[in-house]
Specification:
Chain lengths: 186, 136
Protein backbone atom coordinates (compact mmCIF):
# COMPACT_ATOMS: atom_id res chain seq x y z
CA UNK A 1 0.00 0.00 0.00
CA UNK A 2 2.78 2.42 0.91
CA UNK A 3 4.38 1.86 -2.51
CA UNK A 4 1.14 3.05 -4.11
CA UNK A 5 1.28 6.31 -2.10
CA UNK A 6 4.91 6.82 -3.08
CA UNK A 7 4.01 6.20 -6.73
CA UNK A 8 1.20 8.76 -6.58
CA UNK A 9 3.47 11.34 -4.92
CA UNK A 10 6.23 10.84 -7.52
CA UNK A 11 3.71 11.05 -10.38
CA UNK A 12 2.35 14.34 -8.95
CA UNK A 13 5.91 15.69 -8.68
CA UNK A 14 6.51 14.65 -12.30
CA UNK A 15 3.46 16.61 -13.43
CA UNK A 16 4.56 19.65 -11.39
CA UNK A 17 8.06 19.48 -12.90
CA UNK A 18 6.62 19.17 -16.40
CA UNK A 19 4.44 22.28 -15.86
CA UNK A 20 7.45 24.14 -14.44
CA UNK A 21 9.53 23.19 -17.50
CA UNK A 22 6.77 24.49 -19.74
CA UNK A 23 6.45 27.80 -17.87
CA UNK A 24 10.17 28.50 -17.64
CA UNK A 25 11.78 30.76 -20.26
CA UNK A 26 15.30 30.63 -18.85
CA UNK A 27 16.95 27.77 -20.73
CA UNK A 28 19.45 27.05 -17.96
CA UNK A 29 16.61 26.53 -15.46
CA UNK A 30 14.76 24.40 -18.02
CA UNK A 31 17.80 22.16 -18.41
CA UNK A 32 18.13 21.71 -14.65
CA UNK A 33 14.40 20.93 -14.36
CA UNK A 34 14.79 18.29 -17.09
CA UNK A 35 17.46 16.67 -14.93
CA UNK A 36 15.09 16.70 -11.95
CA UNK A 37 12.41 15.14 -14.16
CA UNK A 38 14.79 12.31 -15.10
CA UNK A 39 15.76 11.72 -11.48
CA UNK A 40 12.08 11.54 -10.48
CA UNK A 41 11.40 9.05 -13.29
CA UNK A 42 14.35 7.01 -12.07
CA UNK A 43 12.85 6.85 -8.57
CA UNK A 44 9.52 5.85 -10.10
CA UNK A 45 11.26 2.97 -11.90
CA UNK A 46 12.83 1.88 -8.59
CA UNK A 47 9.33 1.77 -7.06
CA UNK A 48 8.21 -0.37 -10.01
CA UNK A 49 11.10 -2.79 -9.28
CA UNK A 50 12.78 -1.98 -12.63
CA UNK A 51 16.20 -1.30 -11.12
CA UNK A 52 18.15 -1.68 -14.35
CA UNK A 53 15.94 0.83 -16.16
CA UNK A 54 16.19 3.21 -13.19
CA UNK A 55 19.96 2.91 -13.30
CA UNK A 56 20.02 3.78 -16.99
CA UNK A 57 17.60 6.67 -16.56
CA UNK A 58 19.64 8.14 -13.70
CA UNK A 59 22.95 7.76 -15.54
CA UNK A 60 21.80 8.91 -18.97
CA UNK A 61 18.85 11.24 -18.34
CA UNK A 62 20.04 12.96 -15.19
CA UNK A 63 23.76 12.69 -15.94
CA UNK A 64 25.06 12.66 -19.49
CA UNK A 65 22.07 14.26 -21.25
CA UNK A 66 22.23 17.17 -18.79
CA UNK A 67 25.95 17.70 -19.48
CA UNK A 68 25.35 17.62 -23.24
CA UNK A 69 22.49 20.14 -22.88
CA UNK A 70 24.75 22.42 -20.84
CA UNK A 71 27.46 22.05 -23.47
CA UNK A 72 24.98 23.05 -26.16
CA UNK A 73 23.74 25.93 -23.96
CA UNK A 74 27.26 27.35 -23.75
CA UNK A 75 27.03 27.88 -27.53
CA UNK A 76 23.70 29.76 -27.53
CA UNK A 77 21.84 32.40 -25.51
CA UNK A 78 20.24 31.50 -22.17
CA UNK A 79 16.95 33.26 -22.78
CA UNK A 80 14.14 31.72 -24.79
CA UNK A 81 12.46 33.89 -27.41
CA UNK A 82 8.89 34.50 -26.22
CA UNK A 83 6.06 34.16 -28.68
CA UNK A 84 2.82 35.62 -27.32
CA UNK A 85 0.63 34.43 -30.14
CA UNK A 86 -1.63 31.52 -29.19
CA UNK A 87 -2.01 29.00 -31.98
CA UNK A 88 -5.56 27.59 -32.06
CA UNK A 89 -4.57 24.88 -34.52
CA UNK A 90 -1.91 23.61 -32.12
CA UNK A 91 -4.37 23.71 -29.22
CA UNK A 92 -6.89 21.73 -31.28
CA UNK A 93 -4.30 19.10 -32.25
CA UNK A 94 -3.18 18.70 -28.62
CA UNK A 95 -6.77 18.25 -27.39
CA UNK A 96 -7.52 15.80 -30.22
CA UNK A 97 -4.40 13.69 -29.60
CA UNK A 98 -4.99 13.71 -25.84
CA UNK A 99 -8.60 12.54 -26.16
CA UNK A 100 -7.57 9.84 -28.65
CA UNK A 101 -4.93 8.60 -26.19
CA UNK A 102 -7.43 8.53 -23.32
CA UNK A 103 -9.91 6.67 -25.58
CA UNK A 104 -7.16 4.18 -26.45
CA UNK A 105 -6.42 3.60 -22.75
CA UNK A 106 -9.63 1.56 -22.45
CA UNK A 107 -8.12 -1.27 -24.47
CA UNK A 108 -4.92 -1.47 -22.43
CA UNK A 109 -4.89 -4.40 -19.94
CA UNK A 110 -4.96 -3.64 -16.22
CA UNK A 111 -1.76 -2.31 -14.61
CA UNK A 112 0.59 -5.09 -13.36
CA UNK A 113 -1.97 -7.84 -13.91
CA UNK A 114 -0.37 -11.29 -14.27
CA UNK A 115 -2.86 -12.09 -17.07
CA UNK A 116 -1.38 -9.41 -19.36
CA UNK A 117 -0.27 -10.75 -22.76
CA UNK A 118 3.26 -9.48 -22.11
CA UNK A 119 3.50 -11.66 -18.97
CA UNK A 120 2.02 -14.83 -20.43
CA UNK A 121 4.07 -15.29 -23.59
CA UNK A 122 7.77 -15.78 -22.78
CA UNK A 123 8.22 -14.28 -19.31
CA UNK A 124 7.45 -17.56 -17.52
CA UNK A 125 10.01 -19.42 -19.55
CA UNK A 126 12.70 -16.82 -18.86
CA UNK A 127 11.96 -16.85 -15.13
CA UNK A 128 11.99 -20.64 -14.87
CA UNK A 129 14.71 -21.65 -17.32
CA UNK A 130 17.18 -18.76 -17.52
CA UNK A 131 19.00 -19.70 -14.30
CA UNK A 132 19.54 -23.22 -15.67
CA UNK A 133 20.35 -22.23 -19.26
CA UNK A 134 22.47 -19.12 -18.76
CA UNK A 135 23.64 -19.60 -15.20
CA UNK A 136 23.53 -15.98 -14.04
CA UNK A 137 21.11 -14.61 -11.45
CA UNK A 138 20.26 -11.27 -13.10
CA UNK A 139 17.36 -12.02 -15.42
CA UNK A 140 17.60 -8.68 -17.20
CA UNK A 141 21.20 -9.26 -18.20
CA UNK A 142 20.53 -12.78 -19.46
CA UNK A 143 17.58 -11.58 -21.56
CA UNK A 144 19.42 -8.54 -22.94
CA UNK A 145 22.79 -10.14 -23.54
CA UNK A 146 21.92 -13.72 -24.43
CA UNK A 147 18.29 -14.39 -25.41
CA UNK A 148 18.03 -11.03 -27.16
CA UNK A 149 21.71 -10.65 -28.02
CA UNK A 150 20.91 -9.76 -31.60
CA UNK A 151 18.73 -6.82 -30.51
CA UNK A 152 21.48 -5.54 -28.24
CA UNK A 153 23.93 -5.76 -31.15
CA UNK A 154 21.51 -3.54 -33.06
CA UNK A 155 21.38 -1.10 -30.15
CA UNK A 156 25.16 -0.84 -29.96
CA UNK A 157 25.31 -0.31 -33.71
CA UNK A 158 22.71 2.46 -33.41
CA UNK A 159 24.80 4.20 -30.74
CA UNK A 160 27.92 3.83 -32.87
CA UNK A 161 26.12 5.18 -35.96
CA UNK A 162 24.73 8.12 -33.98
CA UNK A 163 28.26 8.86 -32.78
CA UNK A 164 29.57 8.84 -36.37
CA UNK A 165 26.71 11.14 -37.43
CA UNK A 166 27.37 13.67 -34.67
CA UNK A 167 31.09 13.63 -35.39
CA UNK A 168 30.49 14.24 -39.09
CA UNK A 169 28.31 17.25 -38.26
CA UNK A 170 30.07 18.72 -35.23
CA UNK A 171 33.35 16.90 -34.76
CA UNK A 172 36.34 19.07 -35.32
CA UNK A 173 39.51 17.08 -35.75
CA UNK A 174 42.58 18.13 -33.74
CA UNK A 175 43.78 21.65 -34.32
CA UNK A 176 40.83 22.67 -36.46
CA UNK A 177 38.84 24.29 -33.68
CA UNK A 178 41.67 26.71 -32.96
CA UNK A 179 41.22 28.08 -36.46
CA UNK A 180 37.47 28.47 -35.89
CA UNK A 181 38.00 30.37 -32.62
CA UNK A 182 40.56 32.75 -34.14
CA UNK A 183 38.23 33.41 -37.07
CA UNK A 184 35.37 34.16 -34.65
CA UNK A 185 37.53 36.60 -32.70
CA UNK A 186 38.82 38.49 -35.73
CA UNK B 1 37.75 25.93 -13.39
CA UNK B 2 41.08 24.71 -12.15
CA UNK B 3 41.56 27.65 -9.79
CA UNK B 4 38.52 26.61 -7.71
CA UNK B 5 40.29 24.80 -4.87
CA UNK B 6 37.19 22.95 -3.61
CA UNK B 7 36.22 21.65 -7.05
CA UNK B 8 39.82 20.68 -7.71
CA UNK B 9 40.17 18.65 -4.52
CA UNK B 10 36.73 17.03 -4.75
CA UNK B 11 37.27 16.04 -8.39
CA UNK B 12 40.62 14.53 -7.49
CA UNK B 13 38.91 12.29 -4.92
CA UNK B 14 35.79 11.55 -6.97
CA UNK B 15 37.25 10.64 -10.37
CA UNK B 16 38.99 7.39 -9.29
CA UNK B 17 35.92 6.38 -7.27
CA UNK B 18 33.61 6.95 -10.27
CA UNK B 19 35.91 4.84 -12.45
CA UNK B 20 36.00 2.07 -9.85
CA UNK B 21 32.21 2.13 -9.58
CA UNK B 22 31.92 1.93 -13.38
CA UNK B 23 34.13 -1.15 -13.43
CA UNK B 24 32.04 -2.68 -10.63
CA UNK B 25 28.83 -2.03 -12.58
CA UNK B 26 30.44 -3.46 -15.72
CA UNK B 27 31.60 -6.75 -14.28
CA UNK B 28 28.90 -7.19 -11.64
CA UNK B 29 26.09 -6.79 -14.18
CA UNK B 30 25.52 -10.57 -14.18
CA UNK B 31 24.66 -10.55 -10.48
CA UNK B 32 23.19 -7.14 -9.73
CA UNK B 33 21.63 -4.29 -11.63
CA UNK B 34 23.85 -2.78 -14.27
CA UNK B 35 25.73 -3.86 -17.35
CA UNK B 36 27.76 -2.49 -20.19
CA UNK B 37 25.51 0.43 -21.07
CA UNK B 38 25.29 1.92 -17.58
CA UNK B 39 28.96 1.23 -16.88
CA UNK B 40 29.99 2.96 -20.09
CA UNK B 41 27.99 6.05 -19.23
CA UNK B 42 29.44 6.19 -15.70
CA UNK B 43 32.98 5.66 -16.98
CA UNK B 44 32.51 8.48 -19.48
CA UNK B 45 31.17 10.69 -16.67
CA UNK B 46 34.53 10.51 -14.88
CA UNK B 47 36.34 11.77 -18.01
CA UNK B 48 33.74 14.48 -18.56
CA UNK B 49 34.17 15.64 -14.94
CA UNK B 50 37.91 15.81 -15.56
CA UNK B 51 37.29 17.83 -18.71
CA UNK B 52 34.97 20.26 -16.94
CA UNK B 53 37.31 20.86 -14.00
CA UNK B 54 40.75 20.86 -15.64
CA UNK B 55 39.79 22.07 -19.11
CA UNK B 56 39.17 20.30 -22.39
CA UNK B 57 42.78 20.86 -23.50
CA UNK B 58 44.18 18.72 -20.70
CA UNK B 59 41.51 16.07 -21.32
CA UNK B 60 42.69 15.89 -24.94
CA UNK B 61 46.19 15.17 -23.62
CA UNK B 62 44.87 12.42 -21.30
CA UNK B 63 42.79 10.64 -23.95
CA UNK B 64 43.36 11.57 -27.56
CA UNK B 65 40.16 11.86 -29.67
CA UNK B 66 41.50 9.53 -32.36
CA UNK B 67 42.21 6.89 -29.70
CA UNK B 68 38.64 7.20 -28.40
CA UNK B 69 37.31 7.01 -31.95
CA UNK B 70 39.06 3.70 -32.57
CA UNK B 71 37.84 2.45 -29.18
CA UNK B 72 34.23 3.14 -30.20
CA UNK B 73 34.68 1.01 -33.32
CA UNK B 74 36.55 -1.67 -31.36
CA UNK B 75 33.57 -2.14 -29.03
CA UNK B 76 31.22 -3.02 -31.89
CA UNK B 77 33.98 -5.20 -33.37
CA UNK B 78 34.31 -7.19 -30.11
CA UNK B 79 30.56 -7.74 -30.04
CA UNK B 80 30.43 -9.00 -33.64
CA UNK B 81 33.57 -11.13 -33.12
CA UNK B 82 31.88 -12.96 -30.23
CA UNK B 83 28.95 -13.64 -32.57
CA UNK B 84 31.22 -14.89 -35.34
CA UNK B 85 33.19 -17.03 -32.85
CA UNK B 86 29.89 -18.82 -32.18
CA UNK B 87 29.48 -19.47 -35.92
CA UNK B 88 33.07 -20.76 -36.25
CA UNK B 89 32.52 -23.16 -33.34
CA UNK B 90 29.55 -24.69 -35.13
CA UNK B 91 26.62 -22.79 -33.64
CA UNK B 92 24.41 -19.91 -34.73
CA UNK B 93 25.46 -16.24 -34.78
CA UNK B 94 25.65 -15.01 -31.15
CA UNK B 95 25.11 -18.50 -29.73
CA UNK B 96 27.39 -18.56 -26.68
CA UNK B 97 26.66 -22.18 -25.75
CA UNK B 98 29.26 -23.46 -28.20
CA UNK B 99 32.04 -21.08 -27.13
CA UNK B 100 33.39 -23.48 -24.49
CA UNK B 101 32.94 -27.12 -23.49
CA UNK B 102 30.39 -26.32 -20.80
CA UNK B 103 27.44 -24.35 -22.26
CA UNK B 104 26.91 -22.34 -19.06
CA UNK B 105 30.55 -21.26 -18.84
CA UNK B 106 30.32 -20.40 -22.53
CA UNK B 107 27.27 -18.24 -21.83
CA UNK B 108 29.14 -16.52 -19.02
CA UNK B 109 32.21 -15.78 -21.13
CA UNK B 110 30.09 -14.61 -24.07
CA UNK B 111 28.03 -12.25 -21.91
CA UNK B 112 31.14 -10.77 -20.25
CA UNK B 113 32.74 -10.09 -23.64
CA UNK B 114 29.69 -8.55 -25.31
CA UNK B 115 29.07 -6.38 -22.23
CA UNK B 116 32.68 -5.24 -22.51
CA UNK B 117 32.04 -4.31 -26.15
CA UNK B 118 28.86 -2.42 -25.23
CA UNK B 119 30.66 -0.59 -22.42
CA UNK B 120 33.56 0.44 -24.66
CA UNK B 121 31.34 1.77 -27.43
CA UNK B 122 29.00 3.64 -25.08
CA UNK B 123 31.81 5.20 -23.02
CA UNK B 124 33.75 6.36 -26.08
CA UNK B 125 30.60 7.68 -27.76
CA UNK B 126 29.75 9.77 -24.70
CA UNK B 127 33.29 11.17 -24.44
CA UNK B 128 33.30 11.97 -28.18
CA UNK B 129 29.94 13.74 -27.88
CA UNK B 130 31.39 15.79 -25.03
CA UNK B 131 34.39 16.68 -27.22
CA UNK B 132 32.04 17.72 -30.01
CA UNK B 133 29.84 19.94 -27.82
CA UNK B 134 32.32 21.36 -25.33
CA UNK B 135 33.73 24.79 -26.09
CA UNK B 136 37.54 24.86 -25.89
Amino acid sequence: MIVLYINVIILCLLVITAIAINQQDNLFATTMLTGIFSLLSASLFVCLDAVDVAFTEAAVGAGIALILFLGALSLIKYKEKIKNKISFLGFFIVILTGSLLIYGLQDIPAFASPENPVQTYLADRYIVASEKEIGIPNLVTSVLASYRGYDTLGEVTVIFTACIGVLMLLGRSRGDYKGIVSREKS
Amino acid sequence: MEHHLVLNVVARILIPLIMLFALYVQFHGDYGPGGGFQAGVIFAASFILYGIIYGIERLRKVVHPSFIRSLAALGVLIYVSVGIAGVLNGGEFLNYNVLLEDPRTGQHIGIIFIELGVGMTVASTMILLFYAFARP
